[in-house]
Amino acid sequence: MLGWFQALMPKEERFFDFFDRHARISASAAEALRALLEGGEAVAANSARVNDLEDQADEVSREVLLAVRRSFITPFDRGDIRELITSMDDAIDQMRQTVKAISLFEVTTFEPEMRQLGDLIVDSAKLTIDAVNRLRTMRHDAAKLAAIASRMTQLEEQSDELHDIGLKGLFKTYGNASPMAYIVGSEIYSHLEKVVDRFEDVADRINGIVIEHL
Fold first, then answer.
1. How far, rounded to the nearest angstrom, does the alpha carbon of residue 206 sit from its chain's CA centroid?
2. How many other CB atoms are found less than 10 A from the CB of residue 2?
3. Are the C-beta atoms of residues 196 and 98 closer than 8 Å to each other?
């Protein structure tokens, strides 16, 4: 009787696979955004690539939220699952917002600090892949996950510094000569810095899940 009952119980959804898929899509978007920041004729194609990948990530997010509702058993708290996938989606959403600003202002050349921020975004995305996969064995990998969260915080601090350095450089170059160029540049810096912030939010959410389950 017990075996029959268990056979009828809804099976646990493949949440870890969903998280991995979303993280890898976001990493591809980060690479496209970084390529975009090289400027030139490829800006439009890389912008389209980021937008397409963000649509794919949205679909994964929808699958996760549907799975939460129809699953009897989940690997950890349903609210944590929702918050994690939402924070992951916020990171790639912010990439799309960055691309939208770049397209709106028709920017095709970028400052060195913008490209450095792009590097931090790629690094953050790669760390996220590592982190979500270690959730499968969170008890065993708790120390590693804490180290990833710490590294994410370091990247976020670096992004703050690059943001400030970049704004200072823009002001010196365009503050008086071309105020509009300064405004556009500062908008792009703000978006790029926020992408790193969103990835740090993902790391914080993962760290919180680990702490709850130790």
1. 13
2. 6
3. no
Mean per-residue pLDDT over the chain, rounded: 93
pLDDT (0 to 100) of residue 70: 85
Residue 11 pLDDT > 60, yes or no?
A: no
Whether 202 and 134 have beta carbons less than 8 Å apart is answered as no
pLDDT at 73: 85
Under a CB-based contact definition with an 8 Å cutoff, are residues 16 and 135 in contact? yes
Q: What angle do CA 29, 30, 32 make, to 5 degrees?
A: 65
CA distances from 45 to 8, 17, 49, 106, 203 (A): 48, 29, 6, 13, 30
Q: What burial class does residue 145 get, using C-beta atoms within 10 Å of its C-beta: 0-12 exposed, 13-18 middle, 19+ buried? A: buried
Query: For the segment 73-121, what is each residue's pLDDT rounded down to a tens digit?
Result: 888 899 999 999 999 999 999 999 999 999 999 999 999 999 999 999 9
Instruction: Map out the domains of the chain with their CATH numbers.
Output: 10-213 (1.20.58.220)
